Amino acid sequence: MDKLEDLQTPTWCPGCGNFGLWGAFKNAALKKGWDNTNSVLVAGIGCHGNILNFIRLTSFEGLHGRALPLATGIKIANHRLNVFVFTGDGDCLGEGGNHFIHTCRRNHNLTVLLHNNAIYGLTTGQTTPTSPHSFKSKSTPQGNPDWPISPLGLAIASGATFVARGYSGNLPKLTELIIQANEHQGLSVVEILQPCTTWNKEYTHPFFQENTYFLGENHDTSSKEAAFDKSLQWGVKQIPLGIFYQVEAPTFESQLLQIAEKPLIESSPKGRDLSELLKKYT
Amino acid sequence: MSNKEVFSVKIGGQAGQGVKSAGLMLAKVANRSGYHIFTYTEYPSLIRGGHNVMQINISPRPVLAPFKTTDLLVALNKETVDLHLEELQDGGGIIFEGGDNSSLPQASKNLNLYPIPLSKLATDTGEKELLINSVALGAILAILGGQLSTLQQLIGEEFASKGNPITLANNQAAQAGYDYAVKNFAQKRENILKPLEESGPASLSRSGQKMIVNGNEAISLGAIAGGLQFASIYPMTPITNILHFLALHQDKYGYIYKQPEDEIAAINMAIGASFAGARAMTATSGGGFCLMSEGYGLAAITETPLVIIEGMRGGPATGLPTWSGQGDLQFVLHAHQGDFPRLVLAPGDAQEAFILTRQAFNLADKYQTPVVILVDKNICESDQSFPVFDTAFEVNRGKMTRETIPGYQRFADNGDGVSLRATPGSGNFFIANSYEHDSLGLTTERINDRQTQMAKRMTKLESCQREDLPSPQLFGPEEADITIVSWGSNKGVILEAVKHFDKVNFLHLTWLSPFLTPEIRKRLEQARYLIDIECNYSGQLANLIKEKTGVDILDRMLKVDGRPFFVEEIVEKITSVLEVTANKASQSHLPNGQVENIIN
């Protein structure tokens, strides 16, 4: 496969951060050979979810907030598939917050790409769980009275085994990060910072370009404490990018005897003998 | 009402005393002695300390429902005596904690008293009071003429995995209770559990062999026989035992049970697994189905097969969590926004639950849409004797492929509403899309796409109605003075009641959507007098019937207290209607043939 986007022109606003993410993902897919024989994409609802209409890969666009349990079911049924989850800050942390915690906890072998623009774009600009305090939006005209959540801190605390952050304005680095996340065996979360050019006038390309930096070699990715510390860092020239945390742990799928030899869907559901079971009821 | 054909034992005690396990053991002894049984359990939403009772109805002929009256009350604690003594009829018996010459001054009837030092006999075996239920079981067998060896064989099978000491202690306790009763009540023993000649030790090869099974077990067995590959179920009474059962047997049959974080995750995981190609199900009660409503429509618009078990209890909200109800019918028939084919099947007992659950998997695949099995707590948790289930079944996956198809269109409109379903990984490009979509699955808002896809999905309901919908079951004579209409677990109690009358029949509805309107309307219009029987406040089935057929059943016998209907209540109702209609029948008829309703 050499062409992934011959479907329709993306409907995102000009300058939307999703274009960078779309490009990085397609680059990674072409480089690694992710195609309709080995990969499936899942998304929730939001501007992020429209990405499925612009990539020629089999996918499931589910309900707002529910991409993770949907992807979990797919992975359990056919663990040989490469399962990518596209989700947004409102989708994943608002409507789907509970699923995010538990999916991380179970260490399913999924690649979660969390589009974070700190705004509800599709519903025309309301505050989300990652919008900063005092942020003015249509839902917080007096300024946001709530404090933002740290998606990566939450992922680390919940048990994700690969936790990273990318920026949609840096395609080569983001491409590389998506590949690394997918190669990790276990639950990978990549938070992707992206501007919403229409509704969020604070988190712009210049803002991210001025204030982000890449974690250096002195950052110990096996240290949960160091990862937590970096996940809480946010400020002027203080927004880390790169891999925060990576450890090895058994994936959910690797622990099930039923699928030790082959995917669940390859075991025939036909002709089961229940006679032993029925004896217990006589 | 005389009830000589059915002997009703009620065991009561506090939660934790083993009332249910003793009751089920007694039922199995009866089964192996050639009898039919029906059990009914009442318990509060507590783990210890609450009052538990189990009624075990025993008969040489099939017994289908609980009774109000008790023939032998087995009181493991004093509260049972206080709460249930009144249920005993003249000539009934009571086993209670006591010694020689203990009496029950509060008993107003002529009762056979069986005072037994239950705690002392249990303690004498060295296992303290934990074995009180086994002592009582031994005593019950002695009093009812049952065989202790059958009980001891069952104890051996039950505790095989727990090791010999537990088997031994339970056997000793049962022996102690048995011996005490034989010695002290020799003159008062009965023949209720005397083995019937044609029966013997259990063996599946024997023709006419019976099994004892409840609805939860039957649904689980039906799912396994029906080719279940993935189940995600969040615990909730009354369906929790489905997940226990499925979790326990997953290794042997190769399917996967996954406990999700909530019902929303449960249904979405099941949809994901089904999309990937696995036969998938979930189960819940009304409250959980509220959360699943969102996913219900997702499965429909993405055309993903799914089996959903909805086990009703008394609502709304937490309601009556450990009691039964039938108040979710209209909710399930209308859950989720918008129009999509809703397939809703309501079994009337465990055997129907087994057959319909199994069939639901084929229907879900055939029509690529969710199918709901609607049951109630009385089906889920009542044990009943049935012929051993015939598990031969053809799993049919419908139009499905794992091949790469040139020019593949997942949602192509072929006329019958069902397109070829490919799985992810097959090499085909498509989107399962919660947005309205075109034939590839791409998001669309075009008028033509919307109309085509909506009509395509709704066509499934018509196809199903044409190809799969059976005639409704009519029990009893074609010609009747009264026709009872009902659904769900009321089936058993109505069948028990109508046996007492020559000219009363019963229309039992299991397919609630699609609905066989012409045939049901014809039946109802032919009826001389209609009674609707349901466990909800508004008569939800009667309202559905009115919506579909125009026939308004005026006489509605409704119950919302969480208890099932008892045979005696239905018999009384029929008797009173017959008396009134006998007096009034010649006077006035309504245009649709229904006798003017005088009862309500």
TrEMBL record, chain A:
Please give the PANTHER family that the UniProt record associates with this protein. Answer: 2-OXOGLUTARATE OXIDOREDUCTASE SUBUNIT KORB, 2-OXOGLUTARATE OXIDOREDUCTASE SUBUNIT KORB-RELATED
Q: Which cofactor does it need?
A: thiamine diphosphate; [4Fe-4S] cluster; Mg(2+)
GO-annotated molecular function: iron-sulfur cluster binding; metal ion binding; oxidoreductase activity, acting on the aldehyde or oxo group of donors, iron-sulfur protein as acceptor; thiamine pyrophosphate binding
Alphabetical UniProt keywords: Iron, Iron-sulfur, Magnesium, Metal-binding, Oxidoreductase, Thiamine pyrophosphate
NCBIfam families in UniProt: PorB_KorB
User: What Gene3D superfamilies does the record point to?
Assistant: 3.40.50.970
Q: Residue ranges of the Thiamine pyrophosphate enzyme TPP-binding domain? A: 45-192
Pfam families found in the cross-reference section? PFO_beta_C, TPP_enzyme_C
Q: Where is the Pyruvate ferredoxin oxidoreductase beta subunit C-terminal domain?
A: 196-259
Protein name, per record: 2-oxoacid:ferredoxin oxidoreductase subunit beta
Which SUPFAM superfamilies would you find in this protein's record?
Thiamin diphosphate-binding fold (THDP-binding)
* Family annotation (InterPro entries): 2-oxoacid:Fd_oxidoreductase, OFOB, PFO_beta_C, THDP-binding, TPP_enzyme_TPP-bd
| A biological process term (GO) from this entry | cellular respiration
UniProtKB/TrEMBL annotation, chain B:
Q: Which UniProt keywords apply?
A: Oxidoreductase, Pyruvate
Keyword Oxidoreductase on this protein? yes
Among the GO biological process terms of this entry, one is: response to oxidative stress
Gene3D superfamilies named among the record's database cross-references? 3.40.50.920, 3.40.50.970, Pyruvate-ferredoxin oxidoreductase, PFOR, domain III (3.40.920.10)
Residue ranges of every copy of the Pyruvate/ketoisovalerate oxidoreductase catalytic domain listed in the record:
15-179
Q: Which InterPro entries match?
A: 2-oxoacid/accept_OxRdtase_asu, Pyruvate:ferred/Flavod_OxRd, Pyrv/ketoisovalerate_OxRed_cat, Pyrv_Fd/Flavodoxin_OxRdtase_N, Pyrv_flavodox_OxRed_cen, THDP-binding, Transketo_C/PFOR_II
* Residue intervals of the Pyruvate flavodoxin/ferredoxin oxidoreductase pyrimidine binding domain: 222-413
SUPFAM superfamilies, A to Z: Pyruvate-ferredoxin oxidoreductase, PFOR, domain III (SSF53323), Thiamin diphosphate-binding fold (THDP-binding) (SSF52518), TK C-terminal domain-like (SSF52922)
CDD domains linked to this entry? TPP_PYR_PFOR_IOR-alpha_like
Q: Name one GO molecular function term.
A: oxidoreductase activity, acting on the aldehyde or oxo group of donors
Q: What is this protein called?
A: Pyruvate flavodoxin/ferredoxin oxidoreductase domain protein
